[in-house]
Specification:
InterPro entries: AAA+_ATPase (IPR003593), ABC1_TM_dom (IPR011527), ABC1_TM_sf (IPR036640), ABC_transporter-like_ATP-bd (IPR003439), ABC_transporter-like_CS (IPR017871), P-loop_NTPase (IPR027417), Type_1_exporter (IPR039421). The protein is of the alpha/beta class and 587 residues long. Helix content is 64%, strand content 10%. The protein contains 20 helices and ten strands. The strands form two sheets. It has a six-stranded mixed sheet with strand order 6-7-8-3-9-10, sandwiched between helices. The chain has a four-stranded antiparallel sheet with strand order 2-1-4-5, with helices on one face. The chain binds adenosine-5'-triphosphate and magnesium ion (MG). Adenosine-5'-triphosphate is lined by residues 107, 343, 349, 369-375, 415.
Length: 587
């Protein structure tokens, strides 16, 4: 099954593979010829003293080895290149496929395991493909030709010598199983190691701040140790394989000497024939050993291939619609109808959400942490699909909109400020590849980021470090805002987009945002209520339900969660008694 599937990846490179097969045949032929030449060396040169052959044979042997060398080179080279080409295809396909998978897929798996799949597992596959191709082509042929020679020299002796051969199968199989088992364990540990590394590099600050170095070192050392102990068992198996095979070889040779010697003494076989036979027999064990060892290699690679195919077979949960519907522009309505949503099958995170946002409207979402605000806007961007109900843009269900168009319709400034380790220019052009230098600067100005960017050593061409590590939290946030501004999409989602800014910067950025919201449909999530007082609708989310809705004034008049929330925040920043004395400040 796995083998057949792997074969399908090899098939496109069949031309190169044929070259390899051709040269593999020649290599096998030279091996058999070498064994055959033992007979004239003994019978004609040593025994019959043929002086002409004494000159010719060594020349022939040199030629034979030159041919063999060249053929081996071409065969190995081509077959290894095929292996590389195959894994290149698989790796590209895997990467492409993983990008199509939903957020959920990545949340459920560790980064380390995914990295190990994309790098280690594929590399194991490559090793096995190359080895399999070499071994299967060359060694099988060598075995066949040498066997032919052996039977040609003396079939009785051949049968006898091979009585012991099948017996090697059992120990070799047992050893192979062991190798396979421990290789699998070792691979899992490699995944753990890469996970630890990944967490260490991305969490280095926390490690240092909490003084976790000793724990991390211990953990790493233990995982590494476990990897070692599994690998050692696999190595043990691997090292036992060849002596086991050799032991049986010894039996074969002993029997051959005994019975072959008898035949020579009786005169039914020449000395040359016997030695040619023994040479062929000796040469035979190596390719057979290779073929047997291949079993273990293939087992390991099938394991790796299964893990890779497993990812490739994961259906993207958020599927591209069969026939995408083009949303007519401009956007005049974004609506949620009876939306229910659960991350896992059991607990509803959103319940019966209904809302309608028109053009030029700002919908603000407020509520306690964990209330479902981020989840609600994630559904609009279709990071997840609703469990029940529907979300429509201009009446078209988001599930019917092609992914490319949907991503063009929505600008998302996330709670997490995720930036690439590239220049600021590159990061801003994510939203719009054709943005000009002027567009970039004007976006930076709107996001109140122009001053600090122009003070950077290389301006907008400054590379900002992994995850934007060389910028302050507020600077990162402003870059993210500028990125959304450059993108200029008709639906704008701001998930605490100004939370990392000081009051003064926030006021400045807020002004730019107010301009940006013109002619758009905007969803704003803000913990600081002062930034959303002008919203057309404010929705208060509590435990996944909309518990209050209205304008700022309406909600203040209504004695509910919002008013308490507002009073509480206001009392922290202001001390005016009249605001706090709304009578409901017990929260
Ligand atoms: N990827 C996820 N998988 C499972 N549950 C999740 C996931 N993300 C969020 N949740 C859960 O969904 C609920 C709502 O989370 P959400 O992030 O939408 O809250 P929020 O209102 O944005 O909170 P905050 O104000 O803290 O950002 C929480 O109870 C959270 O535990
Ligand atoms: Mg949130």
């Amino acid at each position: 099954m796995v083998a057949r599937r792997l074969f399908r990846y090899i098939l496109p490179h069949y031309k190169l593979l044929m070259v390899s097969v051709f040269f593999g045949v020649l290599v096998a032929g030279t091996d058999a010829a070498t064994a055959y030449l033992v007979k004239p060396v003994l019978d004609d040169i040593m025994i019959a003293r043929n002086e002409q052959l004494l000159i010719l044979l060594p020349i022939g042997i040199i030629l034979l080895f030159i041919i063999k060398g060249i053929c081996t080179f071409v065969q190995q080279y081509t077959v290894k290149v095929v292996g590389q080409l195959v894994v290149q295809d698989i790796r590209n396909q895997l990467y492409r496929h993983m990008l199509d998978l939903s957020l959920r897929f990545f949340q459920e798996r560790s980064t380390g395991a995914l990295m190990s799949r994309s790098l280690n597992d594929i590399d194991i596959m490559r090793g096995a493909i190359a080895k399999a191709a070499i071994v299967i082509i060359k060694d099988t042929l060598t075995v066949i030709l040498l066997l032919a020679l052996i039977f040609y020299q003396s079939w009785q002796l051949a049968i006898l010598a091979f009585v012991v051969m099948p017996l090697t199968y059992f120990p070799v199989r047992a050893i192979s199983r062991r190798i396979r088992k421990y290789t699998r364990f070792a691979q899992a540990k490699i995944a753990d190691l890469s996970q630890t590394l990944q967490e260490t590099f991305s969490g280095i600050k926390v490690i240092k701040a909490f003084g976790l170095e000793p724990q991390m070192t211990d953990h790493f050392r233990q995982t590494n140790q476990r990897y070692f102990s599994f690998t050692r068992k696999a190595i043990k198996g691997g090292s036992a394989a060849s002596p086991t095979v050799e032991l049986f070889t010894g039996f074969g040779i002993a029997i051959t000497i005994w019975y072959g010697g008898t035949l020579v003494v009786q005169g039914t076989m020449t000395t040359g024939e016997l030695f040619s036979f023994m040479a062929a027999l000796a040469m035979l064990y190596k390719p057979i050993k290779q073929l047997l060892a291949l079993y273990a290699t293939l087992q390991a690679s099938f394991g790796a291939a299964e893990r890779v195919f497993d990812v490739l077979d994961t259906e993207p949960e958020i599927s591209e619609p069969q026939s995408p519907v083009e949303v007519p522009l401009p956007i005049h309505e974004v609506a949620f109808q009876g939306v229910h949503f659960a991350y896992d099958s059991h607990e509803l995170v959103l319940e019966d959400i209904n809302l309608r946002a028109g053009r030029n409207e700002v919908v603000a979402l407020v509520g306690m942490s964990g209330g479902g605000k981020t989840t609600l806007v994630s559904l609009l961007a279709r990071f997840y699909d609703v469990t029940r109900g529907s979300i429509t843009i201009n009446g078209v269900d988001v599930r019917q909109i092609g992914r490319q168009q949907l991503s063009k319709l929505i600008s998302f400034v996330d709670q997490e400020t995720i930036l690439f380790n590239q220049s600021i220019r590159y990061n801003l052009q994510c939203g719009n590849a054709s943005a000009s230098e002027d567009d970039i600067w004007s976006a930076l100005r709107s996001a109140n980021a122009d001053v600090f960017v122009s003070n950077l050593p290389e301006g907008i061409d400054t590379v900002i470090g992994d995850r934007g590590i060389r910028l302050s939290g507020g600077q990162r946030q402003r870059i993210c805002l500028a990125r959304a501004i450059v993108k200029d999409a008709p639906v704008l989602i701001l998930d605490e987009a100004t939370s990392a800014l000081d009051n003064e910067s926030e006021a400045l950025v807020q002004e730019a945002l107010n301009n940006l919201m013109q002619n758009r449909t905007t969803f704003v999530i803000a913990h600081r209520l002062s930034t959303i007082t002008h919203a057309n609708q404010i929705l208060v989310l509590d435990k996944g339900r909309i518990v209050e809705r209205g304008t700022h004034q309406e909600l203040l008049q209504y004695d509910g969660v919002y008013r308490r929330y507002y009073a509480m925040q206001f009392s922290q920043t202001h001390t005016e008694k009249d605001v706090v004395s709304t009578g409901d400040s017990q929260v």
